Every structure is written in C-alpha cells, then in structure tokens.
C-alpha cells in the first residue's frame, strides 16, 4: 500500500467548530478560537466547509504587508479541487455526476468557457512524462473514479483569479514579459492534480502561453523527490494507523452504524468498512445527491453524521498522541527544504522561480501543516491553498521575511518557528532565518532523540 492510499484511510478529518456560526467570518476561520468557539461539533457544518462549494469571492489576507516591503517570491501548495469518489459503496448505484464542463451550468465562472477552449488546443503542450498522457480537463458525462468535477475546476479558477488580483495586479510579482523559468510547476501523476494546477494557472496568468507552461512530475504524494527513503517515517505511520484502528474499536456507535449500513447494502460489515463509504457519502453530500437506497432501506444523514463525528474525534486524539506529528516532520521535510532553498536563491537576487505551484493532495498538505506546528488548522478541504510569501524590507534590503497563509488566513504566528518571535517582536512578519533554522535543524526536536538532520532522524535505531 503506498502512502497516498494508506493515508486516505486515516484522513478526511476536520477540526471542531461552532454549531451555528455560518457568518462569513467564522466560515473563513481555520484556527479555533477558544474564547468564542463552544466545544460542540456539528458534523454537517464541518462537511460543508470541506466541500468548499464555490460562492461569492472570498476576502483573503494574501499580499498584505507594510508599504516598505517588496514581494520577492510566492510558493503555493494546493489540494486538487472537488473530485468524484475514489471508492464506491458496494452494491449501490454510483452517484450520477456529470464531469463534462458546461459554461452555463452551476457552479459558474466567467473564465470557464475560455478555459475549455484553451485546454482543447493544448495537445501540443510539453510536460514531463507521464503527465503528457493525461487529459487537460475533465470530460466524461459520468465521472470516472477520482475525476475532477466542474466544481473542482471552478474552485481553482477562483483561486487563480484571487491570486492574480493580489500578486500580479497589485504587487507585480511577474514582469509583463515573464518567461517560463520564472514559474516552477510540479504535480503528481493524477489527472485531478494536473487539471487543478492548469485551472489555477489559467485564472492566475495574464497570458496563458502553452510554450511557457511546463509541469514536472512528482511520483510521491509527499513531494519528497530524491529523499523519499525514510524508515522511521514509515514506522510512525504504522503506529498512527494502529492508534486509529484502536480508537475505532472503542466506538460502539460507529460499529452499530457500519452494521446498519452493511445490512442495507447486503454485504459483510468488514467489506463495507474497507470500501471507505465516507468518501462516496461526501460526494453525495457536496453535490446534493440523495444517499443510496436498496430494497433493505436507505443510507441516511444520521449514518453520515456518526462517521463524520468519529473522524473529528479521531483528529483530536491524533493531535494529543503526537504520532502523526512524527510522521509529518519526516514526511514534510523534503518539500520544506526545497522551498527554503528556492527562497534563499531569490534573496540573492535571482529572478527564476518567482512563483512556485505544487498541485497536490490532502495527504501532501496535511503533513506540512502539522510539521509547521499548525495542529489546529482544519484538514485540507477541496481546493485548499497553503502559501509561503517571501518579502524584502526596502529600508533594510538585506532583511527578508516570510508569511504563511492557509486558505487566505495569515497563520504565520501560529507556527512553531514564529510563535515566540511574535511575542518578542512588533514586526508584522517572521524573519526568513527563523524558517530556515527550523527546517534545517529545529523541526527534528519534536521527534526526541539526538538527530538534528533529516538523514539521522530517518535512520535512528532507538525508535
């Protein structure tokens, strides 16, 4: 079982929120506020946040800085947009979702029609193999398993438009005559991640020129490139999965619910659980399609709520036990190390790779959030975005700072590497050297032991 498949069994797990807080302010908030948020979990509210159904353009904090700061580079990690399920509920009819793109069908985006037209002319695009064999946009009347939907395309057209307004129109991150080497684009080998990246870029770039678009292929969902071998990381993952399994055994209501659903679809409970029914149920929920029925009855909202509530409880325990944090530190280090390397080159005045885009999965973003110390951040919704901004102080040109934003919210001072700095300094950002020191050395402190670098932490004997 690869890491992506394994962690899909662990994931889809948001954090608690207020029951009746659907104002724009609370909908946007990703870090629970202990003063205003009651300890009541509403699984339906959480599921709505996870769906991220496109509506009015959101307000965001990207690009906010004092006037004497200059934006130097931007590094964007996205989860792909809304997709068709990866699993089916046994012996039920698949949800009927149309994965062709229709300009006048909801959800709508003004650039959708032009996006389809542009993608259909892109067959000459040059991508790193095997990406060149993937379709550039979804196009099946009945979605294929895991296929991006129209909702998913619109989510990322919106993300791209939002980032364009901030980074290009306001901050002039790319020059008018921008070139291919000023973008760094990387994606896993799934059509949903490639298509999500293309949709975001189409919304972002003022001139989508195929000759300037080159996606690199990343075989690992952790984006660990040549640094993927890490035995201790896999041991943390095994222990985390064991913890999850034991928690599920203790939940009698969850077992009862799985038993009821298994009777409805007439399969053994074990088989139903293995089919990961929440993945399919979330698709029904996000697309407002009725849950499946058989002659034995219907899967219903109460079943959905029980499974969703257990996921939220699982997330709470996961934070307390810290096993996932160990996995995350070792899983996220390679991609964080690449990112600070790119930032450091930008501080030297190099003009390449000013905008980096990693089109990825929930199992990519979640370890990065955890490794940064953002344990309270919600589980990555569809089309989630995590952004690292690099800034230069024009009054002190040798000084560079970073900001971290998650779904438009500035979470810089919630991170492990900048919490203390925020208490000591009035500056609105975090010094780049804090992030560099954290990635190169300090993040391994969370693992205990004596290892202060990635190789030693991955191979230590005493774990």
From TrEMBL:
<dbReference type="GO" id="GO:0050650">
    <property type="term" value="P:chondroitin sulfate proteoglycan biosynthetic process"/>
</dbReference>
<dbReference type="InterPro" id="IPR029033">
    <property type="entry name" value="His_PPase_superfam"/>
</dbReference>
<comment type="subunit">
    <text>Interacts with B3GAT3; the interaction increases the 2-phosphoxylose phosphatase activity of PXYLP1 during completion of linkage region formation in a B3GAT3-mediated manner.</text>
</comment>
<dbReference type="InterPro" id="IPR050645">
    <property type="entry name" value="Histidine_acid_phosphatase"/>
</dbReference>
<dbReference type="GO" id="GO:0006024">
    <property type="term" value="P:glycosaminoglycan biosynthetic process"/>
</dbReference>
<keyword id="KW-0812">Transmembrane</keyword>
<keyword id="KW-0378">Hydrolase</keyword>
<keyword id="KW-0325">Glycoprotein</keyword>
<keyword id="KW-0333">Golgi apparatus</keyword>
<comment type="function">
    <text>Responsible for the 2-O-dephosphorylation of xylose in the glycosaminoglycan-protein linkage region of proteoglycans thereby regulating the amount of mature glycosaminoglycan (GAG) chains. Sulfated glycosaminoglycans (GAGs), including heparan sulfate and chondroitin sulfate, are synthesized on the so-called common GAG-protein linkage region (GlcUAbeta1-3Galbeta1-3Galbeta1-4Xylbeta1-O-Ser) of core proteins, which is formed by the stepwise addition of monosaccharide residues by the respective specific glycosyltransferases.</text>
</comment>
<dbReference type="InterPro" id="IPR000560">
    <property type="entry name" value="His_Pase_clade-2"/>
</dbReference>
<protein>
    <recommendedName>
        <fullName>2-phosphoxylose phosphatase 1</fullName>
    </recommendedName>
</protein>
<dbReference type="GO" id="GO:0000139">
    <property type="term" value="C:Golgi membrane"/>
</dbReference>
<keyword id="KW-0472">Membrane</keyword>
<comment type="similarity">
    <text>Belongs to the histidine acid phosphatase family.</text>
</comment>
<dbReference type="Pfam" id="PF00328">
    <property type="entry name" value="His_Phos_2"/>
</dbReference>
<keyword id="KW-1133">Transmembrane helix</keyword>
<keyword id="KW-0732">Signal</keyword>
<dbReference type="GO" id="GO:0016791">
    <property type="term" value="F:phosphatase activity"/>
</dbReference>
<keyword id="KW-0735">Signal-anchor</keyword>
<feature type="signal peptide">
    <location>
        <begin position="1"/>
        <end position="18"/>
    </location>
</feature>
């Amino acid at each position: 079982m690869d890491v992506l498949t394994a962690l899909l069994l662990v994931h889809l797990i948001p954090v608690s929120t207020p029951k009746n807080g659907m104002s724009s302010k609370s909908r946007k908030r990703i870090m629970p506020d202990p003063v205003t948020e009651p300890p009541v979990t509403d699984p339906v509210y959480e599921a709505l946040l996870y769906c991220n159904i496109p509506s009015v353009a959101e307000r965001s904090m990207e690009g906010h800085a004092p006037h004497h700061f200059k934006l130097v580079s931007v590094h964007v990690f996205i989860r792909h947009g809304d997709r068709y399920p990866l699993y089916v509920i046994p012996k039920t009819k698949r949800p009927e979702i149309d994965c062709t793109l229709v300009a006048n069908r909801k959800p709508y985006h003004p650039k959708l029609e032009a996006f389809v037209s542009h993608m259909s002319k892109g067959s000459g695009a040059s991508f790193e193999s095997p990406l060149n064999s993937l379709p550039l946009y979804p196009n099946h009347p009945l979605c294929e398993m895991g296929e991006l939907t129209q909702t998913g395309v619109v989510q990322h057209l919106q993300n791209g438009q939002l980032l364009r307004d901030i980074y290009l129109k306001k901050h002039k991150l790319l020059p008018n005559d921008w070139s291919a080497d000023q973008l760094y684009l990387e994606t896993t080998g799934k059509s949903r991640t490639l298509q999500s990246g293309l949709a975001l870029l189409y919304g972002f770039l003022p001139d989508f020129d195929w000759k300037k678009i080159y996606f690199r292929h990343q075989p690992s969902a952790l984006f660990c490139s040549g640094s993927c071998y890490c035995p201790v990381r896999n041991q943390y993952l095994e222990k985390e999965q064991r913890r999850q399994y034991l928690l599920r055994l203790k939940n009698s209501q969850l077992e009862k619910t799985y038993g009821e659903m298994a009777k409805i679809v007439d399969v053994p409970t074990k088989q139903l659980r293995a089919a990961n029914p929440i993945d399919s149920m979330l698709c029904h929920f996000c697309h407002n399609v009725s849950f499946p029925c058989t002659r034995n009855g219907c899967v219903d909202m109460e079943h959905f709520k029980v499974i969703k509530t257990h996921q939220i409880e699982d997330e709470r325990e996961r934070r307390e036990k810290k096993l996932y944090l160990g996995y995350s530190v070792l899983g996220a280090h390679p991609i964080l190390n690449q990112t600070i390397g790119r930032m450091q080159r930008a501080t030297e005045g190099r003009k390449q790779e000013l905008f980096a885009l990693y089109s990825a999965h929930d199992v990519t973003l979640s370890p990065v959030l955890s490794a940064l110390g953002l344990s309270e951040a919600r589980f990555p919704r569809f089309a989630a975005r995590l952004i690292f901004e690099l800034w230069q102080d024009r009054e002190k040109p040798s000084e560079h700072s970073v900001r971290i934003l998650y779904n438009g919210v500035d979470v810089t001072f919630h991170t492990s590497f900048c919490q203390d700095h925020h208490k000591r300094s009035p500056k609105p950002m975090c010094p780049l050297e804090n992030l560099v020191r954290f990635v190169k050395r300090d993040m391994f402190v969370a693992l205990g032991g004596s290892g202060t670098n990635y190789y030693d932490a991955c191979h230590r004997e005493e774990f």
